[in-house]
Each structure stands twice: as C-alpha cells, then as structure tokens.
Specification:
Layout: H1 3-13, E1 32-33, H2 50-53, E2 62-63, H3 85-94, H4 113-124
Antiparallel strand pairs: 1-2
C-alpha cells in the first residue's frame, strides 16, 4: 500500500472510528445503525430496520455494508445520496446530517484535508482480484 493508504488505515482504526462498525474480513459488523442520513427522495421518512422490528431505536437504521471492493459500489449510503467516497468521508467528518436517533458512534471527526484523502486511499486499497466461484459441472436432470 502507498504511504497515504497506510496513513488512512491508521485513521480508519483510530481517529476516524470507522472500524467500530466496519470490521472483520469484509469490513462490516453486519449490524444495523442509524448514521444520520437526511431524507432524500419521495418518502416522507425512510424508517429502515424499524419497518421489520417496530423497535423505536431502530428508526433510520440500515445494515452496515462491507467495504471490500467499495470503489465498485457507488453511489453510497442506503439511498445513494453520496456519489463519491470523498463525499462519504465528508458526511462522516461532519457527524452525519440528522441527530434524531443517530448512533452514538457517529460524531464529528475533525479530519484534515490530507486525512480525508488518506482515508479514501485506504478504502481504494481494499480492492483485490475479483472472487471467482467455479461450480462443478452436473449432469442434466432430464435427458
């Protein structure tokens, strides 16, 4: 990895607090969190996980995505409201948009311009060769 990506990795696991939710081999805790995304689009309110559980604390909570191959999956956030990784970093640096019901993990970060660039470089480094799954050949069910 580049020096910038290595610095980004240190930020990811430190000051950026990203690894609280983005951890493990695929960089996700597979949990649901409200990160403070403001409403975009035609819905009055996007309730997220609340639609399933009916638990008030899960209003606006969405599953943490994995970050492997993240450069291939834009636009970002559950609603596609952030076009680039740079915009995602800005969102988190500000501590989200909406405070109501937001996870206590989401707070302003105070990142410098270089730190933001370094985090993006680290996320770009999470790329790799595509995973190829080859299935064995099976005979036809009916001839």
């Amino acid at each position: 990895m580049s020096v910038s990506a290595l610095n980004g990795m240190r930020l990811f696991f430190g000051k950026g607090k990203c690894s609280i939710c983005h951890n493990g081999p695929v960089f996700t805790d597979s949990q649901f969190h409200n990160i403070g995304v403001k409403q975009h689009g035609p819905l009055k309110e996007d309730l997220g996980r609340f639609n399933v559980t009916k638990e008030g604390f899960e209003k606006g909570a969405f599953k943490t995505p994995g970050l492997r191959h993240i450069t291939r999956s834009g636009p970002y956030m559950h609603d596609g409201s952030e076009e680039t990784l740079e915009e995602v970093i800005e969102f988190y640096d500000c501590g989200g948009d909406v405070a109501e019901n937001r996870s206590p993990f989401i707070t302003p970060l105070g990142l410098t311009g270089q730190e933001k660039k370094d985090l993006v470089e680290f996320m770009k480094a999470l790329e790799g060769e595509p995973i190829v799954i080859s299935l064995p050949e099976f005979p036809p069910l009916h001839e």
